[in-house]
């Protein structure tokens, strides 16, 4: 048993990781091309962060939290900021592709590295599927707006059409007229009814989602330079539009719409945490570009922090403008930016916003389709996945097989399935990665104090948390007692049985972990920033509900089955250890 534990926690040091991934001899021609500069990395970060969050989910978050949702953006940015600093230290120390997977390998060991790698694959895939479907919705709306009608059965996924058709039939059976049905139900009904049938199967598929996925995958396949130029152009266009929205919208702000600032209290603000956090996960993708940066030790940390700061300012200002232009209750729509300008009779601006949303969604898809194959590639290099995933195209210098598989994994589900109900899995997966990256910094500080003390790259500023963390925890308890007595009483209420209690399990776990880290920080003088990063991200995970935790755990169990049937035996560290024994 002790040997098994030792094998599962075998680590790769930063020195080993760097030695393994130094540029190969030019004879082999297998290097990734180092062409990304700081401006390109910042553009990648903004491309991923400024997407669905601004053009879609900010509406529902604002409707739930009112103008106070701007505080949620700040809180989430702080939580991400702690993580970004930890990412920045890892990226500066280990400028190797693989993101949190590589960092976990260096700090926690192989099993945790596999878990986080498997988690990242889920995060990127589901996020990309959701973005492809959202892009299709915006694209279809714009086409209708210019008079180009696409049949409903070619712009909707199979499950949405099937379920919507059944729901519409039930509503009409109860006497409701077809014209009175919600637009989504009408579209689903028409899609199902008009779709051609082959062998008893309705041919309903989201063709625009397939098309954009193929186009983006092709761009990523043929090279980093093409991806870089496209991302930079798309980012420039959408920043111009966002600044236009803020500038024009500011003239239509009515400050009385900001009162009350938090109409539904703290719980209302936190209701949008999943939607808001979904907007911030992009800076994680920057770290996957490490082997294609000209100066990764210097530029990766800067790019992560700069992109996070820029996007936070944009989100906060935009949330205040939106909630100032119209009453917050009206913002529960899929296209809030376009809606507010239609509301004040500026249809031209609304049209520009709708078109720019297509650009924004495409740039998000580009960055994540770029990042995911590099995680497949890095896991394959370590022997945890088949070697085909780490093959580099001799001409394009990209991980071509991994890129192709990524395209298939996103395109096929986006074509037929409605996965919007599991988009929270993207957030919970990213938060889990952030928790482990912050924990990894704490572990490295303990195991390699001499190495980190002499490290010349970026390092998380050390602030002794011995007294600060207990003080922060005590302050939180006092504030809860003062302003959240009703919520606390409801939480500790035993009414409702298991059905009610199961939803409290994540928060109970968070309370326990907070107590443990408060004691450890006091005893061991732990660094405050990684500890705060770990705890704030863990708290955000508790807000995603027991259903998402259950789905997340099922995915991790499936990953463990694959690891123990393939990865454990084929791991390069395992083979090296076996060779050393002979």
Automatic annotation (TrEMBL):
GO molecular function, one term: amino acid transmembrane transporter activity
TM segment ranges: 41-63, 69-88, 199-221, 233-253, 265-283, 304-328, 348-371, 400-419, 425-444, 465-485, 505-523, 552-568
Cationic amino acid transporter C-terminal domain mapped to chain residues: 528-571
The keyword Transmembrane helix is assigned to this record: yes
Membrane topology of this protein: Multi-pass membrane protein
Annotated keywords: Membrane, Transmembrane, Transmembrane helix, Transport
GO cellular component, one term: membrane
Subcellular localization, as worded in the UniProt entry: Membrane
Any Pfam family the entry gives: AA_permease_C
Protein known as: Amino acid/polyamine/organocation transporter, APC superfamily
Organism: Pontibacter chinhatensis
Classification of source organism: Bacteria, Pseudomonadati, Bacteroidota, Cytophagia, Cytophagales
């Amino acid at each position: 048993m002790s040997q098994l534990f030792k094998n599962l926690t075998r680590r790769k040091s930063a020195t080993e990781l760097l030695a393994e991934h130094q540029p190969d001899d030019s004879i082999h021609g297998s290097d990734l091309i180092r062409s990304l500069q700081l401006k390109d990395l910042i553009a990648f970060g903004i491309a991923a962060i400024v997407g669905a969050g601004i053009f879609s989910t900010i509406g529902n978050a604002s409707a739930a939290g009112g103008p106070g949702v701007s505080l949620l953006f700040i809180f989430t940015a702080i939580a991400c900021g702690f993580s970004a600093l930890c990412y920045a230290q890892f990226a500066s120390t280990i400028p190797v592709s693989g993101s949190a997977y590589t960092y976990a390998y260096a700090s926690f060991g192989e099993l945790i590295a596999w878990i986080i790698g498997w988690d990242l694959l889920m995060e990127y895939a589901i996020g990309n599927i959701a973005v492809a479907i959202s892009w299709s919705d915006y694209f279809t709306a714009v086409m209708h707006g210019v008079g180009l009608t696409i049949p409903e059965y070619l712009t909707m996924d199979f499950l949405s059409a099937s379920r919507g058709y059944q729901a519409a039939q039930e509503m009409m059976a109860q006497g409701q007229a077809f014209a009175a049905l919600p637009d989504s139900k009408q579209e689903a009904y028409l899609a199902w009814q008009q779709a051609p049938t082959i062998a008893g199967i309705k041919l309903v598929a989201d063709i625009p989602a397939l098309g954009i996925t193929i186009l983006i995958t092709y761009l990523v396949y043929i090279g980093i330079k093409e991806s870089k130029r496209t991302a930079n152009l798309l980012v420039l266009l959408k920043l111009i539009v966002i600044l236009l929205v803020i500038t024009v919208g500011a003239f239509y702000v009515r400050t009385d719409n900001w009162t009350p600032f938090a109409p539904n209290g703290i719980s209302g603000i936190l209701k949008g945490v999943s939607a808001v956090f979904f907007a911030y996960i992009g800076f994680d993708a920057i770290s996957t570009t490490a082997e294609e940066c000209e100066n990764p030790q210097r530029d990766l940390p800067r790019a992560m922090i700069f992109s996070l700061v820029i996007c936070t300012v944009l989100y906060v200002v935009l949330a205040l403008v939106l909630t100032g232009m119209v009453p917050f209750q009206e913002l529960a729509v899929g296209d809030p930016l376009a809606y507010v300008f239609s509301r004040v009779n500026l249809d031209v601006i609304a049209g520009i916003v709708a078109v720019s949303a297509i650009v924004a969604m495409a740039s998000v898809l580009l960055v994540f389709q770029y990042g995911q194959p590099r995680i497949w590639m890095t896991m394959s290099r370590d022997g945890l996945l088949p070697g085909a995933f780490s093959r580099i195209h001799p001409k394009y210098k990209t991980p071509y097989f991994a890129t192709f598989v990524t395209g298939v994994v996103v395109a096929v589900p986006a074509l037929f399935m409605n996965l919007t109900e599991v988009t929270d899995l993207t957030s919970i997966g990213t938060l889990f990665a952030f928790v482990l990256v912050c924990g990894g910094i704490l572990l490295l500080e303990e195991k390699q104090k001499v190495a980190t003390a002499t490290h010349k790259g970026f390092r998380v500023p050390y602030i002794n948390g011995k007294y600060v963390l207990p003080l922060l925890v005590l302050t939180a308890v006092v504030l809860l007692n003062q302003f959240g007595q009703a919520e606390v009483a409801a939480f500790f209420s035993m009414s409702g049985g298991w059905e009610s209690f199961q939803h409290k399990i994540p928060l109970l776990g968070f309370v326990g972990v907070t107590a443990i880290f408060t004691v450890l920080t006091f005893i061991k003088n732990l660094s405050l920033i990684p500890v705060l990063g770990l705890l704030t991200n863990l708290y955000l995970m508790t807000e995603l509900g027991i259903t998402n935790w259950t789905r997340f755990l099922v995915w991790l169990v499936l990953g463990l089955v694959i690891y123990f049937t393939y990865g454990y035996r084929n791991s390069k560290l395992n083979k090296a250890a076996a060779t050393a024994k002979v």
